[in-house]
Amino acid sequence: MNETAFKEALATFATEPAENLSMTDELDEIGIDSISVFELMIKLEDVVGEHATKIDDDMSTVQDLYDHVRKAAELHASA
């Protein structure tokens, strides 16, 4: 999943449209909370696998979440 597709998926849950999202945006500043992250992972389950919903508390930016999605997708693809 590339950054553009990720931002489009994330924008469904954010207070900003995809084109306004920056990888350095803080998740809480764009309206993304733990429930939003969980719902996003459910939406992306076919890409990231069903076990990707475990989220670290250290994730605070769009980039952190994107890195998590990419890692989960890689693990899912190799399974």
Automatic annotation (TrEMBL):
SUPFAM superfamilies with a match to the protein in the record: ACP-like (SSF47336)
InterPro entries reported for this sequence: ACP-like_sf (IPR036736), PP-bd_ACP (IPR009081)
Cited Gene3D superfamilies? ACP-like
**Domain called Carrier: residue spans:** 6-69
Per the record, the domain of life is: Bacteria
Q: What is this protein called?
A: Phosphopantetheine binding protein
- Which organism does this record belong to? Myceligenerans xiligouense
